[in-house]
Amino acid sequence: MLLSFPAPPPLSLYIHFPWCVRKCPYCDFNSHEPHGAIPEQRYIDALLADLQQQLPAVWGRPLESVFIGGGTPSLLSPEAIERLLSALRAMLGLGPDIEVTLEANPGTLEQGRFAEYRAAGINRLSIGVQSFEDEKLQCLGRIHSRREALHAAEAAHAAGLENFNLDLMFGLPGQSPAQARADVAQAITLEPAHISWYQLTIEPNTAFAHAPPVVPEDDALWAIQQLGQETLAAAGYVQYEVSAYAREGRRCRHNLNYWQFGDYLGIGPGAHGKLTDAPQGRVERQWRQRHPQAWLESAAGADVVAGRRTLGREDLVLEFMMNALRLREGFASALFQAHTGMPISTVEPALREAERKGLLQWQLQRVLPTERGHNYLNELLQLFMPEEK
What we know:
Blueprint: E1 11-17, H1 40-54, E2 63-70, H2 78-92, E3 99-104, H3 113-120, E4 124-130, H4 134-139, H5 146-158, E5 164-170, H6 177-189, E6 194-199, H7 207-210, H8 218-234, E7 238-241, E8 244-246, H9 253-259, E9 263-267, E10 272-277, E11 282-288, H10 292-298, E12 305-310, H11 313-324, E13 331-332, H12 333-340, H13 348-356, E14 360-362, E15 366-369, H14 371-375, H15 377-382
Parallel strand pairs: 1-2, 1-9, 2-3, 3-4, 4-5, 5-6
Antiparallel strand pairs: 6-8, 7-8, 10-11, 11-12, 13-15, 14-15
Helix pairs in contact: 1-2, 2-3, 6-8
């Protein structure tokens, strides 16, 4: 039986910029230190060629959001951003209220650049601060200082970009609960619209994986997490996802589309996309060539696609739950069918078992993780894993 979609889900666009001044020891993203000058004009040409190939699959579908991530996209000149967004308007017809986010590193900003980004069409920033302690920043391999982090937030306000996010990590090497709380408190004084606050994890194939730093024990991490959450809540930042906190009306629309299992195009080296073909009753993932040079050389041809996969029913169930159950408010039961093509009864046994274990509540129209479900999210998701055959 085919999957049944009443309509395609909302659609977003992710644009990957693969270069950084310096690779951070904790980073497992597709980012690279450039050898020589960044080929800015060629890169924009290649992005547009990559997108051009994907347009027939999304004709007539409006974009909810655009996110330019990396890497360090703030290495791009405002002129390059303007050229890119102007082309997107011509190709996709960006709506007047669309959310357009640019990731920025405080160590790569020039005076006045935020105002130029805003003039080009950027209306949201995500600033990678990670910590306000110089010692911790050096340990993390960041190229900016506390002073530059403070200046970046001040520059965002001065440019009229009030809708900005500050990225912060906790569980840093040698970090105490008091130090972690001080980072959160400092971020709050800068009045961002949004704060992403998440635990440092040691990922495979990173410098930290080869030479792991000493990070806080589990008890200290739990104390840090509780203290930070209390501090953010008292300041009016509502936790709406595992690591996302926002002022009223300032939740990240782009990430919400991911978490609600919407569709998205991905362009740039290693970018992933997910598209629903409603008439054909299927959902496909595809990903681009990962290495920047390989992607640049193939962006205008079919070889730019490194792989593709049609998602089976078990994949759809697990991927939907892995995303939607991160949200504090859970998800509407109708959303499951709208975005997976299957009725909610498909997962009724797992939902009932999760209820029995106190991990979620299945109300009439909504599936809502409990506090225990959020604290033990892996245990909750295990219930939706496909059975081994």
